[in-house]
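[Automated response] Your request has been received and processed.

Submitted sequence:
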Amino acid sequence: MHIDYKGTRIKQYHKEGQALRTEATINNARDFYIGKRLCNLDKLRQTGFQANRRLLEVEKISHDCILTEEQLQRLHHPLQIDRQRVSALRFGDRKVHALWHSLVLFDLLPSGFSNGQLRIRLAPLLGLKPEQLTPGQMTYHLRRLRLHGLIERVPHSHRYRLTSLGLRVALFFTRTYDSLLRPGLGVILPAFSGSSTPLRRAFDKIDSEVNAWIAQTRMAA
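Generated structure:
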């Protein structure tokens, strides 16, 4: 796997089929606002190690992004935080789902993302042009994400980054909806699926057994 950022590349591969190796190569130190003199080598190494660890953390969470019942309920209900009311982020809501898809794209950016960058990614997912999303709408989305603890502001800037919880929530909601619910419902609902699949046959069997039990109960009564 190769990940490119300006003049920097992270390469990940299996070494001799036994160990996962992750290497970061920084070809231009100024991409990270670091000078090119040897006295900056330690800072440059720290930046490379942080990039590697961030990638590994994302991969770790992507394989285990399950949320607790308490976390799900907090997201599905409005909250009151320091006299500030924050609206819910409900699973399956079209705008919220588009928001999750947009946020996942920014997790590996070393400097986070801005209001404008989020707007450019979010608008097409809502069927809009970026200029159709007002600054007020974007501020509303950023505010509720921040108060729910899903993003945090980068110090001394107007940029944001995903928290560990934010990445876990975004991955869990997008994967569950896109990979499980949407295709699953398309398979089991008679109005949308004309083909016979193991899942469809299993649901038809359950439906038949339930109807038979209802009929038997009525006869007994």
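Summary generated for your ticket: The mean pLDDT is 84. Residues 9 and 25 are 5 Å apart (CA to CA).
If you did not submit this request, please reply to this message.
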